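hey so i finally got around to running both of the ones u sent me last week. sorry it took forever, my laptop kept dying halfway thru and i had to restart like 3 times lol. anyway pasting them below in the order u listed, first the sequence line then the structure token line for each. didnt double check formatting much so if smth looks off just lmk and ill redo it

first one:
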Amino acid sequence: MRKSLHGRRIVAAGMLVVLLAATTAAPALAATSPVKAGLDVLTAQDGVPGAEVVIQDGRRTRVVRSGTGDLATGKPFPRDGSFRAGSVTKTFVATVVLQLVGEGRVRLDAPVERYLPGLLPDTRITVRRLLQHTSGLYNYTQDFAGLDPETLRHRGAEPAELVAIALKHPPLFEPGAKWSYSNTNYIVAGMIVERVTRHDLSGEIARRITRPLGLHGTYLPRRGDERLPSPHAVGYTPVGGKLADFSDFDATIAWAGGGLVTTPSDLDRFYGALLGGRLLRPAELTEMKRTVPADLGGIPGAGYGLGLGGIPLSCGGVAWGHGGSIPGFTTMSGVAAHDHRVTLVANQDPVPKGTSQHVAAAFDAAACSGQ
């Protein structure tokens, strides 16, 4: 999620630009490479504890790291360690919804009212408008802005509770009139999946995506599941002016909008499979990539589709993927031309002012390293 639970960062977790120190890179990536230099800006200049990029080209995997995965011990990021992916979760949820569309069980342009009667006050809000952030629904995570993150660490939440928080506020605009990133959209989308399939969202993601693709490190935690699997970098968040270990966290307060646990190689494999047509039929993948102009970190030409962002790269072409931030971790993941898959993760959220642009620049360098 990009606006975090304590400072409007969980939404940056969902926006693409957030889609968009020793190195362990393969010999093909020298220590002075633009990828390593981009990560060093995050750690040496911005003060983020550590950052890692995992790049997959076919069967070749390259890893570049900077800084540390643990401030107490100085250990680097563990190779392919677990982390919380924030709003990257949205691409998984949108994929499940679009699979249901392909099965004829959900219609993109049907009102949410058809699947969740009485939940939303405006029957003009459609499934498509949820997935594309054009519903006008208030972003419930804004109500957590400025709170002590420790008060949220073990809180957790049920989906209906999160929607109720959003509905205490008036809509931002009429459905379809504008684009505005709102985590509430994906809480409702997750509820649709559960109503239509009669299974919980965690199980549907496993059955439809993670098990078929062999993503053994990826899952959507249920309430009360607060521990990250080992190995993992320590996830830090500012508390009282210091960086606190926030690795343990009940992410059901983010749920379908940003609760996913995963690994870099799993995300590379997921986005490669999705954009390669292994998870959706051509018609649904086309809809997913049909974008509207979106403010993704102020990058010119960026757009947002259905749980998928498209952002121009400095080397030409577009990267398709998503970004996310949630207490402890900031990430960007996606696919550039020629099935060049990139996942960047930093072990801090929220990050200092201006760091999001540096994350985007480091991701761009990695995405362009396959050109």
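and the second one:
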Amino acid sequence: MARPRIKDVARHAGVSEKTVSNVINDYAHVSDRTRRVVREAIEHLGYRVNLAGRHLRKGRTGIIALVVPELDIPYFAELARHVIREAEERSLTVLIHQSGADRAHELAALAGFGSTFVDGIILSPLALTADDLRDRTGFPPTVLLGELLEEGADHVAIDNERAAREATRQLIGLGRRSILAVGGLDDSGLGTAQARTRGYRAALAEAGIAYDPAMLLPVGSFRMPDGARAVSRALREGPRPDALLCLNDQLALGALRALHEHGVPVPEEVAVIGFDDVEGGRFSVPTLSTVAPDKAAVAKVAVRLLQHRIEEAAAPDGAGSQAQAPQDLVVEHRLVLRESTEGRERG
């Protein structure tokens, strides 16, 4: 059976093809009755919009890329689910690319993978520098996630420094004074780990607690084995901490395992807070206190901003001359307190 076309819908509904197109594109000036009749015809005939054709007529493919460091990190997997859902609401298809935190792969993503098959890119960079972002003439529209590397780039993130400060304040409020920052990086970099470390240091300073660089536990990567190894080493070699601020939940879950293996009760002797609110933290023993970014909001804001930039880029010459300046958009977060700090859930 031939696939129904827009003219078949128009004939069945008793309206023009232009009216059917107006309903499909949700134009406001169509009456409620006409809209209902056309949608009933679409449903009856099983008509499906040719999204590829629609996008190509606008000089676009309808495909955006989401580039993340590692898909098996739960935060990025959960974020990808939200991005896909938001893109579908806007009739966009998402191509997911794993960069491996490799600069060459991230640069290839910035350049649109050397092709024109993506209209725009949402990129979570770990290896890029500000210099890499400064001259992107001819590259696809791009929205960055995570920490802001370049003032002239569109960017969506939570306030990582403020979030870490709040989490550290919470630990201090529980009477903890010897707080290890697992994954902490004390340098002038603009990455997420550096921002969270600055927040940790600010909270210590507010409480009059002397900062000790030895309380930062660097890790090879932000995975559970790295958290477990770093905390095991700290328990063997140094004075025992009474709290851990882990810069993501994977490190925190590994830390919980190390504390268990060393016979350290949580939170009685050591309280633990992570970052990201991944699903595993709600099922660990004890359940994990964490900073919870609004991942759905991150996806919504990033996709909306990217679509706006794509439309600007596709505008006829001169039409985009009043393009909006690059935006640095902050999405809310909240502190979720569970058994690893308080023995109950709150937040």
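quick thing i noticed on the 2nd:
The longest strand covers residues 63-68.
anyway thats it, ttyl
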